[in-house]
Write a structure and sequence with these properties.
Elements (H helix, E strand, L loop, with lengths): L1 H9 L3 E3 H6 L4 H9 L3 E5 L2 E4 L10 H9 L4 E2 L1 H7 L10 E6 L12 E6 L1 H4 L3 E6 L2 E6 L1 H10 L1 H4 L1 H12 L6 H10 L3 H12 L1
Parallel strand pairs: 5-6
Antiparallel strand pairs: 1-3, 2-3, 4-5, 7-8
Helix pairs in contact: 5-7, 7-9, 7-10, 9-11, 10-11
């Protein structure tokens, strides 16, 4: 049984049922590991090790979501929490997909899908490399634009809080933010606030 753990560690902590079967592991042993909380079933056919120490300093929920949804991008509330733009912390992982795409069902973490048109979906994607797989997340400027796009859902208070916190950062790129806001069709909303904050 320890061979399964070693195998999955070599794979980066994740393995599909197909990979495990090809490596000659028995389905009954895999199920037993899930029942004993040694393995976690992320979605049908995808498993990861439950050992928290093995994943130290990695956002497991983001890794799980990105491994389970190959075209998914961490966005909106999850991204503002990642960038420490707000104390807002959603109970679900917010994931962007193309509006033409079907969603997939995953066991964990709970995911809320947002559907984007192609030009807005492909804008400002950051890739964070981890030994467990890539985390795809929108950059800080795209995240701000998205929050203003969904201002009815998040409210004026959160939208203004993240913009105010952004302007306090040395690395703030106002040119990029304005360019993104034009593509995301929120320039006329963001720009007056931005002028008020930075003059």
């Amino acid at each position: 049984m320890d061979k399964i753990i070693k195998y999955i560690k070599i794979q980066g902590g994740y393995a599909t049922m197909k990979d495990l079967k090809e490596a000659k592991f028995q389905t009954r042993d895999i199920k037993k590991y899930v029942q004993n909380n040694i393995l976690e079933k992320v979605k049908p056919g995808l498993y990861r090790l439950s050992d928290i120490d093995f994943y130290k300093n990695v956002n497991l929920s983001f890794v799980d979501a990105c491994n389970s949804i190959p075209t998914g991008i961490i966005c909106l509330g999850s991204a503002i929490n990642y960038y420490n733009l707000s104390t807002y912390n959603p109970s679900e992982i917010h994931v962007a997909v193309m509006n033409s795409e079907k969603t997939v069902r995953i066991n964990y973490p709970p995911v809320k899908f947002y559907f984007f048109r192609k030009n807005q979906y492909s804008l400002g994607i950051n890739i964070i490399k981890t030994k467990f797989g890539d985390i795809r997340i929108y950059d800080i400027e795209k995240t701000i634009c998205d929050i203003f796009r969904f201002k009815n859902e998040y409210g004026d208070e959160i939208a203004l809080e993240i913009l105010r916190n952004y302007t306090r950062r040395k690395e703030a790129d106002y040119f990029k933010l304005r360019e993104y806001s034009k593509i995301c069709r929120v320039y006329s909303i963001i720009n007056p606030y931005l002028k008020g904050l930075i003059g």
